């Protein structure tokens, strides 16, 4: 398996990312478990660096926390799949699996967002019925695109009230 060090590094990043927000993870324990996992996978092998990272470069392209959660909702199941195929008799593997299952359940809504995106890519835009529906919804889509975020509206109206005083 190529890029194991990078994928294990991303696992560290994911755990630390969620740990910093949830404060429910023992980061020292997670790092120790991941270090043991690196040894199990012999991730210091020379072929690991070939081709670059497999997950971290994808995370760098997304800046907002909610955007990253959508990507992470796809990465965490890959780690679960990988670890479920390893020796679960080892305590560090069981602990990492437990933490990943916890993370995966917190990402379930974000996974639904990914499914929505996938459904959009599958739309047959050359189908006349789909085109008719799309045209009927076009104005609503434009409205969503041009309306300012709710937080911006609220700040602006609060500012106006302050100025009138």
TrEMBL record:
Signal peptide: none annotated. The chain crosses the membrane at residues 6-28. One of its GO terms (cellular component) is extracellular space. Its main location: secreted. InterPro entries: 4_helix_cytokine-like_core, Interferon_gamma. It comes from the Eukaryota. It is found in: Secreted. GO terms for biological process: adaptive immune response; defense response to virus; humoral immune response; macrophage activation. Keywords: Antiviral defense, Cytokine, Glycoprotein, Growth regulation, Membrane, Secreted, Signal, Transmembrane, Transmembrane helix. One of its GO terms (molecular function) is cytokine activity. Belongs to the type II (or gamma) interferon family. Homodimer. Produced by lymphocytes activated by specific antigens or mitogens. IFN-gamma, in addition to having antiviral activity, has important immunoregulatory functions. It is a potent activator of macrophages, it has antiproliferative effects on transformed cells and it can potentiate the antiviral and antitumor effects of the type I interferons. This is Interferon gamma. It comes from Bucco capensis. The lineage of its organism: Eukaryota, Metazoa, Chordata, Craniata, Vertebrata.
């Amino acid at each position: 398996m190529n890029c194991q060090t990078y994928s294990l590094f991303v696992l560290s990043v994911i755990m630390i990312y969620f740990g910093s927000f949830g404060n429910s993870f023992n980061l020292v324990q997670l790092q120790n478990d991941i270090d043991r996992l690196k040894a199990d996978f012999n991730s210091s092998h020379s072929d690991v660096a070939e081709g670059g990272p497999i997950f971290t470069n994808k995370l760098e392209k997304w800046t907002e926390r909610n955007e990253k959660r959508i990507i992470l909702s796809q990465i965490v199941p890959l780690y679960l799949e990988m670890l479920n195929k390893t020796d679960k008799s080892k305590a560090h593997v069981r602990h990492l699996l437990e933490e990943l299952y916890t993370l995966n359940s917190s990402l379930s809504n974000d996974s639904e967002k990914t499914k929505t995106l996938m459904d959009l890519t599958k739309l047959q835009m050359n189908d006349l019925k789909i085109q008719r529906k799309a045209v009927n919804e076009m104005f609503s889509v434009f409205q969503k695109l041009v309306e300012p975020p709710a937080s911006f509206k609220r700040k602006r109206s609060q500012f106006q009230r302050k100025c009138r005083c």
